[in-house]
Amino acid sequence: MGTRAWALLLVLCGTIFLEGIDVAMMAVAIPAVRSDLGLTTGTAAWVMSAYVLGYAGFTLLGGRAADLLGRRRMFLLWLTVFLAFSGLGGFATEGWMLIVARFVTGVAAAFMTPAALSLITTSYEEGPQRNKALLVFAGTGAAGFSLGLVIGGLLTEIGWRWVFFAPVLMAAALLVPAVRLIPRRDAPPTRRRAFDLPGAITAAGAMLLAAYTVVRLEHGLHDWPLTVAAGVAALLSGWAFVVVERRCPDPLVRLGILRQGPVVRADLGALLFLGAFFGFQFVVTLYLQELRGWSSLQTALALLVMGIDAVLAPTLTPRLVARFGNARVILGGFALAVAAYALFLPVGMDWSYGMMFPTLLLSGLAFALAYGPLTIAATDGVTESEQGLAGGLLTTATQFGSAIGISAVTAVYGLASTGSGPEATLSAFRAALTVPVVLVALGALISVVSAREVRRAARRASQVSSVNASQTRAKPAQRSGGISSWK
């Protein structure tokens, strides 16, 4: 890649880094925010959940909007919105102001991130160049989250408002070069299309209700009728969305893309992998801070080794993909993740950092192997006109995965907390740690299916090639015999 291509990639990767660091810093800062503004536990929880609802609720719409309205336009517009509302959050004096700011910031990320991903898949030639760009993109996002834990701890010590102001400075630093580097040739289709407003409304409604249901899961059996009602409403909205899209001549989402096996398996694999990763990280953070008494900065530094994928994803993973293919590398990542999380199941009250280190290192290695290739698989073979949609589906899967992972471990922890005292708390943590193991085990099964499909496709292609080669060799002889007879 040339200098301009690398510069464009750095800008686009900067947005996923910004999104990752924003989420991580907020997770570290929320106790200080709650204490300073006197927020209730419920309000503090909604400050965190509002971002998830905005992101997961609109990312599918955001991905398709990039295809229909222009990727450059959507990227620049929503990066500006992200900048503005992150700044407003820094000036908040009431809980509701933070909730609104975080919700709109999540919506901005839902439009901005798929646009950035589709700009990569349409700006770099399919094959090794695009694969390397996507692996760098994936590794940068993970690095943002890992570094965000440390940076968030440092900024919180100065003042929690800097957790909101720092993304403003970073977004501004990305916006200026983005205006120059993103090609203007990226434009919406010349054929005028009626925007599928009913599809947009039903899609956003279904995603918002589904995200709310997932967030409600962390409450366990508390107010379960509300959780069930939200789930039923999400299913009905999803059904209405499918009906609308089937009847619409220009649907927001071409439902046929959901019948592409490799894309669906990649999205489902990303959902399970991210769910396990964030669920595990959430439990470990609680274990270190609540049970062991570590500070937020000590915890962030301990987890920093999980960010090793930021180094390996753009360096080692492309070589492995080139040699073994996406499917095998993804399977290797899931296998490492199963081993990593299983090693942590017998965690003790007085485990040293050395005993935790193998799991933390292996989980970072697993992320480097699995996430980037999953991103490639989720967009591979999709037409250019639907790259935004493919990016939206992948981002939807990752956001729901992280929400499901955190909610599931929280629910299991709550159900397993049957007593008081350190031993009872430790037992509940061990129960919650089974969730990441189950999620990556399911992902490993799906990746086995994908690897088998790749082998079968390669075998069929080899057989067809052999038949064509034999027919090519036979034709000259047949033609020669015919001429001889005619003579």
Automatic annotation (TrEMBL):
Region Disordered: what ranges? 465-487
Q: Where are the transmembrane segments?
A: 45-63, 75-93, 99-121, 133-156, 162-182, 194-212, 224-244, 264-288, 300-317, 329-349, 355-377, 389-416, 428-451
Listed InterPro entries: MFS (IPR011701), MFS_dom (IPR020846), MFS_trans_sf (IPR036259)
Can you give the residue ranges of the Major facilitator superfamily (MFS) profile domain? 8-455
Q: How does it sit in the membrane?
A: Multi-pass membrane protein
| Tagged with keyword Transmembrane helix | yes
Entry-linked CDD domains:
MFS_MMR_MDR_like (cd17321)
| Keywords, comma-separated and alphabetical | Antibiotic resistance, Cell membrane, Membrane, Transmembrane, Transmembrane helix, Transport
Q: Where in the cell is it found?
A: Cell membrane
Give the top-rank taxon of the lineage listed in the UniProt record for this protein.
Bacteria
One protein family per Pfam: MFS_1
Concerning PANTHER family, the annotation shows: BLR6921 PROTEIN, MAJOR FACILITATOR SUPERFAMILY MULTIDRUG TRANSPORTER MFSC
State the protein's name. Answer: MFS transporter
Q: Identify the species of origin.
A: Streptomyces olindensis
Its taxonomic placement starts with: Bacteria, Bacillati, Actinomycetota, Actinomycetes, Kitasatosporales
